[in-house]
Amino acid sequence: MRSLAKTGLLFSVALTAQFSIAAPYDTVVHQFGFTESYNNIHGTPIPNLTLNNVTDGSVTVVESETTSITELNQFTLEFANAPSLRVSKLSKDNTGTYYSMCSSGSNNVFVGSVKNQWLFREVQVVVCPQGAPMDSEMEFKYGIYAKTFEKYDSSNSGYMENLLLSEGSFRAADVTPNPVADVYTTEFNNKRLSLRLLKQPMTVYTPSQGMQYGVAIKANWLGHGEKVLIVNSYDIPVTSFTQSIALSAEPEGDPNMITITYMENSDAPNTSRMINLRDLLESAYGPL
Questions:
Q1: Do the domain assignments include residue 122?
Q2: Nearest residue to 58 (alpha-carbon basis) of 26, 94, 30
Q3: pTM above the 0.70 mark?
Q4: Between the CA of residue 146 and those of 66, 125, 149, 261, what are the distances in Å?
Q5: What are the φ and ψ backbone dihedral angles of 229, each rounded to 5 degrees?
Q6: How many CB atoms lie within 10 A of CB 166?
Q7: How many other C-beta atoms are found inside a 10 Å radius of the C-beta of residue 31?
Q8: Which domain holds residue 38?
């Protein structure tokens, strides 16, 4: 076997501002960028504060080996007619207080707060992620509350708590940067084929099998265009903690039989069984 040269190229879809976040070895950070919002409504009307028109947003999700989502590292919303909202370190809430705003039976609730936001001393944000971090797109339901505010009228004065300002949902696509781990260039059916092995697994739609999650290879095939190839889980069983290292080809025999070297978290590297390149290409490009 011969190992192909590594490269430092970076593959990234910059749909939203990215944040540089270091994570412990047993966690994975996913960055999601806003695609659309819906069901956004006002809570109690506040003069000169309009929060029902969300124009952009992002969420940074931290996943661990033991828990699908352990923390929302950052949650950001942009509004058409109000200053932006940015909350850091939303932690999981186990009190059950906000379960009703999530999907039926869900206890995936995260709560955080920010000081001196808009007109208030403190604003609390409740977020319910819908789906799994490995998905290419997730939905996030949210509620925005004035945690404490002053109320004065003819009959009462003092502090009130948890005034609902706005709630809604938005969809976001995974925009986590995915570096290239290795590059292989060959010919297939007399056309130049470049394969870039991506470091992290991806979820991609394939014509033959629908949505697939696995080790990802970005293919650029002359005359056929670019596609993302997903290695079958039978060849490489993967999790969010799988990292691809190298793509290798046989120096003798069929040059279109390849193997992939990968590791799971901090474990020792593993090498896949031989993978038929034709089968891999057909899964994305159709019958050849």
A1: yes
A2: 30
A3: yes
A4: 33, 9, 6, 51
A5: -95, 135
A6: 24
A7: 23
A8: 19-174
Quick one: 281 and 247 in the same domain?
yes
Helices marked H in the chain — which ranges?
277-285
Q: Which two tokens stand for residue 45?
A: 């009307």
* CA nearest to 144, candidates 220, 84, 92, 203: 84
Report how far apart, in Å, the C-alpha atoms of 223 and of each of 188, 189, 192, 284 are.
11, 11, 9, 14
Report the C-alpha dihedral over residues 164, 109, 99, 149, rounded to 10 degrees: -20
The domain spanning residue 110 has which CATH number?
2.40.160
CA–CA dist 50, 82 (Å, integer) = 6
pLDDT digits (tens, 9 = 90+) for 162-189: 788 999 999 999 999 999 999 999 999 9
Q: Give yes or no: residues 153 and 185 share one domain.
A: no
What is the DSSP track for 13-62?
A: --SS--------TTEEEEEEEEEEEEEEEESS-BTTB--S-EEEEEEEEE
